[in-house]
Amino acid sequence: MSIPLRTRIKFCGLTRPEDVDAAVAAGADALGFVLWPGSKRAIDEQRLAKLCARVPAFVTRVGLFVDPDPTLVSRCAEHLDLLQFHGGESPATCMAAGRPWIKALRMRDGLDLHAAAEAYGGAQALLLDAYRPGVPGGTGETFDWSRIPASLAKPVILAGGLTPDNVAEAIAAVAPFAVDVSGGIEAAPGVKDAARMAAFLQAVRRADDERLGA
Ligand SMILES: O=C(O)c1ccccc1NCC(=O)[C@H](O)[C@H](O)COP(=O)(O)O
User: Fold this and answer.
1) Is 204 within 8 Å of 171 (Cβ atoms)?
2) Cα separation, 211 vs 171, whole angstroms
3) 12 among known catalytic residues
4) Could you tell me what percent of the chain has a pLDDT over 70?
5) Cα 202 vs. chain centroid, distance in angstroms?
6) Whose CA is nearest to atom 5 of ligand 1?
7) Mean pLDDT of the chain
8) pLDDT tens-digit series, residues 22-34
9) How much is the pLDDT for 102?
10) Residue 163: which of 148, 182, 178, 177 has the closest Cα?
11) pLDDT exceeds 90 at position 124
């Protein structure tokens, strides 16, 4: 008999020490740090080291890359538990980093999730995000959750436009392994809002109670 898991929560795009502390205090399972210079939420390696040093054991530190130079990945890896590849990286490129990784897939028309789950068989999970041409992530937009098959060979991390107001509906529709949010818990790009983080956490917990019949 398998025991249903509570939905894991990843907050992405943290840039400030006080936001890291607030996210940990709220109860996030994983924190994401954007190492792609094109993002409004980008941080450099020095800031990554400082922010990651504040993260306690049992909270996963995730580094987010978009078609990175492998030397950047290896320089950052010592601070990280998990790599998130958010660009057009091939399975071989993701594997070559030699660290646990997840693959973000943007839900463009025609994407075959079963084929992707097979191709990215070395991933810990697939992060499914909204597709907007030319924008690799952090769009603040949802996608049609009914496109996600009920059964997939990889755990699903649901992303894209989640907020404290819609995350319960998303969990009821998809029952993902985890949810990922960036813009929905912000006061401004890269500036998280402690009250919205807490509200998001509470909404997930309530949805889980509903789902698991607690
Ligand atoms: O957040 C960014 O600026 C970003 C830029 C480039 C690639 C990925 C990026 N974010 C990735 C994430 O994991 C976000 O949490 C995910 O895209 C959802 O963002 P949002 O729709 O704002 O919740």
Assistant:
1) yes
2) 8
3) yes
4) 98
5) 18
6) 137
7) 96
8) 999 999 999 999 9
9) 98
10) 182
11) yes
Q: What single-letter DSSP state applies at residue 14?
A: -
ipTM over 0.90: yes
Distance 63 CA to ligand 1 centre (A): 12
Closest C-alpha residue for ligand 1 atom 14: 138
**Token representation of residue 151:** 């059964």
Note the Cα 195 to chain centre separation in Å.
20
User: What single-letter DSSP state applies at residue 176?
Assistant: -
What pTM was estimated for this model as a whole? 0.96
Task: Report the share of the chain in percent with pLDDT over 90.
Answer: 96
Q: Is 94 a catalytic residue?
A: no
Ligand 1 neighbours (beta carbon < 6 A) = 12-13, 32, 34, 36, 39-41, 64, 66, 86, 129, 136-140, 159-162, 180-184
List domains and CATH numbers for the chain.
8-212 (3.20.20.70)
Instruction: Give the pLDDT confidence of 82-103 residue by residue, as tens digits.
Output: 999 999 999 999 999 999 999 9
Residues 157/10, Cβ–Cβ less than 8 Å: yes
Backbone angles phi, psi at 117, to 5 degrees: -65, -35
Angle CA 24–47–70, to nearest 5: 105
| Atom number of ligand 1 nearest to Cα 12 | 15
Exposure letters 127-144 (e unless 16+ CB within 10 A, then b):
bbbbbbeeebbbbbebbe
